[in-house]
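Help needed: design a sequence for this.
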């Protein structure tokens, strides 16, 4: 009996300790969380003003799902626009604040917010000489290492992550300003279904897809959205299939995080055009049916696998 009482007492003590610990942790969290958020907001404000020369204040705006910061001078005039983005570095995400001059289509400044790159190698993306290279760069540049920018010896992936994030930010803002994602998607559908004038998004047999129509209102084909797991993260594709569900009419990338100058070959026309005219009965084997990109096997295979997925979904529409 005494032994049983001892067990009960132990359970009660442990329960009390657990409740007390949880209570203390909750109190600590409630006290420190506002402070953490305040410090984070202060760092963000400092970064925004830091990449927008002449700005003393800023206003936050939403544009087609993007959070943008418009820098204001002492007279309230807009001096530039900042956007916070992540790049895919060697050690993990690379957080950046990017200042842009949307009136003159050029980069104002870039600041590294956080990263997990290797000290002495990838961590050198924070060095002034590297960051200074982005200033005054026009939007037309692709920010490729060793072409548009000087790289960092032994840290190519880290440097490319910054360049790719800057380029991606410009692309996304330009899409937002040009009419938004819906207009952008309409353009992609026309790209993979030649002759398309109108489209509608439908769900057929459990598959969400786009149906394109030509000027006469006839079905031009189907566009199937798919995803692949690339080297840098998820890539999104749209695959155009003819109205008879027999062959591929076009393939294009909606979004990706592949390494600039290597894996981003998947977004180039020469790579994508290999799929045009392929029958839905083809195997799509990398380096047999489709030429992969040197040094970018993971990216290439992810793209091919995504196209295979689209083909299987198209077959299910018969």
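Sure. Designed sequence:
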């Amino acid at each position: 009996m005494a032994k049983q009482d001892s067990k009960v007492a132990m359970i009660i003590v442990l329960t009390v300790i657990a409740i007390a610990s949880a209570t203390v942790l909750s109190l600590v969290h409630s006290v420190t969380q506002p402070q953490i958020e305040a410090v984070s907001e202060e760092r963000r404000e400092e970064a925004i003003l830091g990449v927008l020369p002449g700005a003393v204040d800023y206003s936050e705006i939403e544009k087609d799902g993007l959070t943008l910061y418009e820098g204001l001078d002492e007279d309230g005039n807009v001096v530039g626009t900042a956007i916070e983005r992540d790049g895919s570095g060697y050690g993990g995400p690379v957080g950046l604040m990017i200042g842009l001059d949307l009136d003159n289509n050029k980069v104002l400044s870039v600041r590294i917010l956080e990263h997990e790159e290797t000290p002495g190698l990838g961590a050198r993306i924070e060095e002034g000489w590297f960051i200074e290279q982005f200033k005054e760069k026009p939007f037309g540049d692709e920010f490729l290492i060793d072409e548009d920018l000087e790289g960092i010896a032994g840290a190519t992936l880290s440097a490319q992550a910054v360049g790719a994030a800057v380029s991606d930010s410009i692309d996304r803002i330009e899409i937002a300003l040009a009419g938004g994602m819906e207009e952008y998607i309409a353009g992609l559908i026309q790209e993979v279904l030649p002759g398309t004038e109108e489209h509608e998004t439908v769900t057929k047999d459990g598959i969400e897809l786009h149906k394109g129509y030509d000027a006469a209102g006839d079905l031009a084909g189907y566009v199937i959205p798919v995803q692949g797991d690339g080297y840098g993260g998820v890539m999104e594709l749209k695959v155009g299939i003819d109205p008879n569900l027999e062959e591929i009419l076009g393939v294009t990338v909606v979004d990706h995080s592949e390494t600039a100058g290597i894996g981003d070959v998947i977004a180039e026309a020469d790579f994508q055009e290999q799929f045009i005219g392929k029958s839905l009965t083809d195997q799509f084997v990398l380096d047999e049916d489709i030429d992969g990109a040197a040094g970018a096997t993971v990216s290439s295979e992810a793209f091919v696998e995504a196209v295979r997925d689209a083909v299987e979904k198209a077959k299910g529409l018969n």
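The beta strands are 57-63, 66-72, 78-88, 93-101, 106-114, 198-204, 207-213, 219-229, 234-241, 248-255.
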